[in-house]
Design a protein that fits this description.
- The complex is a heterodimer of chains A (193) and B (128).
- Chain A has 193 residues and is of the alpha/beta class.
- Chain A has 7 helices and 7 strands; from the N terminus they run βαβαβαβαβαββαα.
- Chain A has a 5-stranded parallel beta sheet with strand order 2-1-3-4-5, with helices on both faces. Chain A has a two-stranded antiparallel sheet with strand order 6-7.
- Chain A is elongated and about 90 Å long.
- The model of chain A has no long low-confidence stretch (mean pLDDT 89).
- Chain B has 128 residues and is mostly helical.
- Chain B is 69% helix and 0% strand.
- In chain B, helix 2 packs antiparallel against helix 3, helix 2 runs antiparallel to helix 5 and helix 3 runs antiparallel to helix 4.
- The N and C termini of chain B lie far apart (41 Å).
- The mean pLDDT of chain B is 88.
- Classes of the chains: A alpha/beta (193), B mainly alpha (128).
């Protein structure tokens, strides 16, 4: 996955870049918040790892701009913090739209784990987006045409995409229009007089 | 301790560089010839020399904001090498405030200069 790094410290930027490349990601680097915003606005990525304190546009201001950009797929925003960061600031950052935090100095295992979580959440976001967008549905039998161009029962489609299980019941309208006539028919069959 | 001096925890017994942190940087290098470690040390030292000039200037003008921001930046870079003594001192300088007197600020800077010299030597030795 393509990851944008916004970090003004040259050493931290290089370490993070190497770590992410080693994990198989494509990396774009920016030396400060302004440069990161230009990169993102030109070619949005799905994951940003940004330092908090940077000259000019800081990490939170960058996050605000990313969130406010119209018609942009959800971007997972990871903020870099020092281990001694003030806890109150974390609440503030979350409220601004930050998704996760990574503390400095970097630990290769944690970097990989955070990016994996980001990928997992973005994957769910994409699936929810697909469900919210227009689905091709048969106007007669109500089957859904899935991503493989196969007509699938709507229950199976939703279950596959969201993990939802269905409990089968009968709504009052169908009870009246389907079940009651069936019961009457059975009664007539059993009692022909 | 005078009222204007930020609390400065004593880490003088800590090693200048953390061997585990240095090993992590060596492990990151796929070339196996320490090219990355050398590159990181050079990049840090070039950047840190410039920031040390900035911090000296900030002290001369008693510009607490620049002093604090520069100390924060130095701390971020040095933390990658596990330079606990240096980063602890940077953190203390980061907390300088309006009540810090010029004498107290100068004392902190003198400590920082000393720790920076030691850190520089240790990083240069790593690649010699």
């Amino acid at each position: 996955m393509k990851v944008l790094i916004a970090e003004d410290d040259v050493t931290s930027r290089r370490i993070l870049e190497t770590s992410l490349k080693k994990l198989g990601h494509e990396v774009v680097t920016a030396r400060d918040g302004e440069e990161a915003w230009s990169c993102f606005d030109r070619d949005p990525v799905r994951i940003i790892v940004s330092d908090w304190m940077m000259p000019g546009l800081d990490g939170l201001q960058l996050c605000r701009k990313v969130r406010a950009r119209p018609s942009t797929p959800y971007t997972y925003f990871i903020l870099l913090t020092a281990l001694d960061a003030n806890l109150e600031n974390f609440h503030h950052a979350m409220a601004e739209g930050v998704d996760d935090f990574l503390s400095k100095p970097f630990n290769q295992v944690f970097v990989g784990a955070r990016i994996k979580v980001a990928e997992r959440i973005l994957n769910f976001t994409t699936r929810v987006g697909q469900l919210e967008s227009i689905l091709p549905i048969c106007m007669y039998c109500k089957k859904i045409r899935n991503d493989q161009d196969y007509w699938q029962q709507i229950e199976a489609y939703i279950s596959e995409h969201t993990g939802t299980d269905f409990s089968h019941g009968i709504c009052p309208d169908c009870y009246e229009s389907v079940v009651v006539p069936q019961i009457r028919k059975m009664e007539q069959t059993q009692d022909p007089s | 301790m005078p009222a204007g001096t930020p609390h400065h925890p004593d880490h003088s017994e800590a090693p200048i560089l953390d061997p585990d942190a240095i090993q992590q940087l060596r492990d990151l290098d796929e070339s196996g010839d320490n090219t990355l470690l050398k590159e990181l040390c050079d990049a840090f030292l070039t950047d840190a020399e410039e920031r040390m000039v900035l911090i000296r200037q900030a002290l001369a003008g008693m510009d607490m904001k620049v002093m604090s921001n520069t100390a924060h930046a130095l701390k971020g870079g040095a933390s990658n090498f596990g330079a606990k003594r240096f980063t602890t001192l940077c953190h203390t300088i980061q907390l300088v405030h309006a009540e810090t007197t010029p004498a107290q600020a100068a004392e902190l800077l003198a400590s920082l200069e000393k720790e920076f010299r030691l850190l520089k030597e240790a990083l240069q030795q790593l690649n010699s």
